[in-house]
Write a structure and sequence with these properties.
The complex is a heterodimer of chains A (178) and B (191). Chain A is built from two helices and ten strands. Chain A is mainly beta. Classes of the chains: A mainly beta (178), B alpha+beta (191).
Chain lengths: 178, 191
């Protein structure tokens, strides 16, 4: 095997970076409004970041509006999802089943509680100042801290009124606490 | 209807239409059937869960409104049938895991799962799940912190379940089920 020279390695990095940043096919982030602290995503999640100066971030897509806030004084994260208007109209008065799956430090956070509400509801959830991972004893507590990355997977579905079909949605967010 | 009918799916966000497999009415009938079956055949855990619910309801001030919140308790392994999960079956339910299907004024609002092997902490599991829904419904802090007025936070300890001021450990706390008695003592001491 021949050794890759540093210069060639640099060229390879630049070319690969350009491909990832320029290619719309690889940029799998949601279309539309970028949050103020959003970093372009090339993966299967939409990356958002909170910082002390900007503890709030959001992402707007055709599925809906996701907003997240991190409290640096009392380490905790709150977020909410508003379903886009066109799906609120499509679902009408049919309840929407909405669930979050949340992961941090490679483990699932114990806050899975599917909710059923009308589509106009603000589907909110949080990781409190003390939280548990699935499988923990209930008195075991963890706290978020700067440097943590939290994956929030939102899924919702409703029966389309007047049709024998369900409409499913998913939106995957990754929030970096920096 | 075919999948990805909207044609706007990618890895990060997306949607799809799929054929409905059953009606909500059928699911509700199943919930009631399994809950009734559980009451008859597994009376002990259902009794534990109901007792814990009473404790929490008392502190949330909803015990005088029996129709505000109702919970149908079923073993978690039956949840896939009454609340079909996204895609694959959930599977892997542990022994002692129960699901509470929560109805607020008769409308199904959420599903919680609890482990009945933690008997002393059952009120904590329930409070953590339903406190927010109750607060949204009654539009006031329940139970309210006697020092600051905000909602108290449910906390589990190795010996039980307590309400605690969210501003900091040790500021104010009381065992679940003893909220009104403790608040009464606090106000007497302060006067």
């Amino acid at each position: 095997m021949s050794e890759v020279r540093p210069f060639r390695r640099l060229i390879a990095v630049v070319v690969l970076s350009s491909v990832f940043l320029a290619s719309p096919a690889l940029a799998k982030g949601a279309p539309g409004g970028l949050g103020p602290t959003r970093v372009p995503s090339t993966t299967n999640f939409i990356y958002l970041e909170t910082r002390r100066q900007t503890p709030f971030a959001y992402d707007s897509s055709y599925v809906g509006l996701f907003q997240v806030q991190y409290n640096y004084a009392h380490p905790s994260m709150q977020w909410g999802f508003t379903i886009a208007k066109q799906w609120q109209i499509e679902s009408g008065q049919t309840p929407v089943r909405f669930e979050y799956h949340v992961y941090a430090r490679g483990k699932e956070v114990n806050n899975y509680r599917p909710h059923t509400e009308l589509a106009s509801y603000l589907f909110h959830s949080s990781i409190g100042a003390r939280f548990q991972f699935k499988g923990d004893a209930p008195w075991t507590y963890h706290s978020l801290r700067a440097g943590d990355t939290v994956d929030i997977i939102a899924r919702f579905a409703y029966t389309v009124p007047g049709a024998n079909s369900l409409h499913d949605f998913w939106a995957n967010y990754r929030v970096g606490v920096r | 209807m075919g999948e990805a009918q909207s044609g706007r799916a990618n890895a990060a966000i997306g949607d799809r239409y799929r054929t409905a497999t059953g009606s909500e009415g059928n699911q509700e009938e199943l919930v009631q059937h399994y809950a009734e079956q559980a009451r008859e055949q597994q009376a002990s855990p259902v009794h534990l869960l109901s007792d814990a619910m009473e404790v929490v309801a008392r502190d949330l001030g909803i015990d005088s409104e029996p129709d505000l919140i109702n919970v149908a308790w079923i073993p978690s392994f039956q949840l896939d049938e009454v609340d079909p999960p996204w895609g694959a079956r959930r599977g892997g339910r542990e022994e002692g895991s129960w699901a509470g299907i929560v109805y607020l004024r008769g409308r199904r609002v959420l599903i919680m799962e609890v482990d009945v092997s933690y008997i002393e902490q059952l009120p904590f599991f329930l409070a953590e799940s339903i406190q927010d829904a109750v607060i949204e419904e009654v539009r006031e802090a329940r139970p309210a912190c006697p020092l600051h007025g905000h909602p108290l936070r449910p906390v589990a300890t190795p010996s039980g379940s307590v309400w605690e001021c969210p501003d900091g450990e040790g500021l104010w706390s009381c065992p679940m089920g003893a909220y009104y008695r403790t608040v009464g003592q606090t106000s007497k001491e302060n006067s």
